[in-house]
Amino acid sequence: MILPVTLTIAAAAAVVNLWLAFRIVTIRLKDKVLLGDNGDTLLQGRMRAHANFTEYAPFILILLGLIELAGGSTLWLWIAGVVFVIARIAHAFGMDRTTSSPARAGGALATWALMALLAVWAVAIAYQANAVPAAKTFQVVPSGSQA
């Protein structure tokens, strides 16, 4: 079964991951930092933004995929996927600052809320499937008499 929502969001996540990596590499090349962060707070923030993304993306994508496979609402899955991508981009921009920022806080909070909602949705689907009584089937048996 093709999972169009999950595949699209996974592709978007791959692009975001590459963008986050590129933001780190440009600083590393400019400042000739091969390992670590050389005490550069901008590099530290970008490294953490990239690490945070790789910590959350797998859980979100797995939940999206399994919910989509189980027949979850495509509209709500699209909304969840777009919110995730936007939240992680906002978070990354917020991490460029050494002080707290609305982008950083909003991106983190949106990601946490989304993960919690997807987890609850997944559990609800799992237990709803077990709570639905099996469909009754009827078999037509000839009575032996012809009409």
Overview of this protein structure:
The mean pLDDT is 88. α2 packs antiparallel against α3. It is elongated, with a radius of gyration of 23 Å. The protein is built from 4 helices and no strands. The protein has helices spanning 4-31, 41-69, 74-94, 102-131.
Essential attributes:
4 helices, elongated, 147 residues, mainly alpha, 73% helix
In terms of topology, how is this protein built?
Blueprint lengths: L3 H28 L9 H29 L4 H21 L7 H30 L16
Helix pairs in contact: 1-2, 1-3, 2-3, 2-4, 3-4
Brief sketch in words of this structure:
With 147 residues, this protein is mostly helical. It has helices spanning 4-31, 41-69, 74-94, 102-131.
Which structural class matches the secondary elements?
A: mainly alpha
Query: Which percent range fits the helix content?
Result: over 70%
Q: How would a textbook summarize the main sheet?
A: none
Weakly predicted, low-confidence segments:
none
Estimated share of beta-strand residues: under 5%
**Overall 3D shape:** elongated
What is the number of strand segments?
Answer: 0
SS field, number of helical segments = 4
Measured distance between first and last alpha carbons: 47 Å
